[in-house]
Amino acid sequence: MKIIKSITYISILSMGLFSCQKSTQKALPTVQKIKTKTGSFLEMQPNPLADLPKLSNTDLQSKQQLIFDFYNKNWKNNMNGSFLVAQNGQIIFEKYDGFADYELQKSITPQTPLHIASVSKVLTATLILKLIDQKKLALDQKVNTLFNLFPYPEITIKTLLNHRSGLRNYAYFTAEKGIWDKHKILTNQDILDILIHKNIQLEFPTDSRFSYCNTNYALLALVIEKITGLTYADAMNKMLFKPLQMKNTYVFDYQKDKDTATPSYKGNFRKVGLDYLDGIYGDKNIFSTPRDLLQLDLARRSPNFVHQNLQEAIYRGYSYENRGAKNYGLGIRMIEWTTGETPFYFHNGWWHGSTSSFITLGKENVTIISLSNKFNHETYKVKYIATYFGDYPFKIKDSLE
Predict the structure, then answer these.
(1) Which of 7, 105, 251, 353: CA 20 to 30 A from 133?
(2) Which residue numbers delimit the Beta-lactamase-related domain (predicted)?
(3) Which residue intervals of 39-119 are DSSP H helices?
(4) Is residue 257 part of a domain?
(5) How many helices (H) and strands (E) does the chain have?
(6) Per-residue pLDDT, 50
(7) Helix (H, G, I), strand (E, B) or coil at 300
(8) What is the count of structural domains for the chain?
(9) What CATH number did the domain enclosing 67 receive?
(10) Regions in the chain scoring below 70 on pLDDT
């Protein structure tokens, strides 16, 4: 019987209690400034939350025990991925278990990049928001001012970010007869060309309601390329990954990475193959690690991230046509409790066999990240960990998937 190897960066005592290793107490790496075509991207402090207090040993051990118990209840013997919880920039718990490559019996480690699926939208939105903050782009700017012949005059950068554009999902309209040859890898530019030349109708009038749509973020990736003069991958690398020292994060390139990227699996460890949609980026196709995504979350909470008005716009709901607590801001999902509790901010993802969850609790300065390359729904259950830090009234019947 093969034993799944695991790496846990906390010391677990024989009775199940554990104390934090020195490695979890270290400050996060200094974020360096770089120059790009659009100027200095992030003028970050070495750690934006460095002035916040460390958890007391008692509080630390209490939180670790709660999370350890959560892990044992939900993931024991079933995890294949990576999982991290941090507060005030301090890693409380992290766990890496299972196989990056099942056939080669290659274990997942803290440095193993996994496909983060739609959590990629958070990163795409981050770069768009920085360009807006630097006045290289406007939130209400019409997309047809950037792309000639773009046939939807009311669509703006904002309605792409908050999924109110009315565009249809490219996975659906490219599957229709006569639109695209599925033997060819689809690109972002192909999507734009199809929208311009193939008379693809909107699903609904722009800004009349919400509909989550990957096409929005595939187009935002093209906006990044248009404004910066760089490829999306180069822009993300030079303007986000390098300054935040996200050393194990990259944008998947179908031609270069299809044979080397960490594969994904069905629940029975049958490898999921790639298809004609795997060349699209912006909505997906970023590989990363929990530690790198923690760096991103800390940077987004910095007062230097964007101006206050734009920061408030990110975490505001835009879609109230239907009753309910769920909403979407600018690149982030949210639950706005009708009973008045603190809103819950997150983004989940699913692509092929990969699942992901990115949770950011600004009030409590907590980051919760789970990634898996073997399909399962347990990835999304990390939302319940929020209840250990604040007043988040989750019930078992709730679903954020």
Answers:
(1) 251
(2) 82-377
(3) 57-74
(4) yes
(5) 10, 17
(6) 57
(7) helix
(8) 1
(9) 3.40.710.10
(10) 1-50, 396-401
61 lies in some domain: yes
Alpha-carbon span 224 to 245, nearest angstrom: 20
**Residues in a beta bridge with 67:** none
**Cβ atoms 266, 175 nearer than 8 A:** no
Select from 83, 332, 123 the least CA-distant residue to 241.
123
Sequence length of the chain is: 401
Residue 135 lies in a domain: yes
- DSSP secondary structure string, 163-203? T-S-PPPHHHHTTSTTT--TTS---HHHHHHHHHHS----S
- Alpha-carbon distance of 276 to 185, in angstroms, equals 4
242: amino acid identity, one letter:
K
Convert the pLDDT of each residue in 18-73 to its tens digit. Answer: 333 333 333 343 333 334 443 344 333 334 555 778 899 999 999 999 999 999 98
Residue 292, number of CB atoms within 10 A of its CB: 24
Q: Can you state the angle between helices 214-228 and 188-197, rounded to 10 degrees? A: 110
DSSP 33: P
How many of the other CB atoms lie within 10 Å of CB of 26? 10
* 394 within domain boundaries: no
Specify the pTM. 0.88
CB distance 276 to 80 below 8 Å: no
Predicted local distance difference test score (pLDDT) of residue 68 = 95
> Which residues lie closer than 8 Å to 49 by C-beta, 6 or more apart?
88, 89, 298, 301, 365
C-alpha torsion sign, points 241, 221, 263, 356: positive
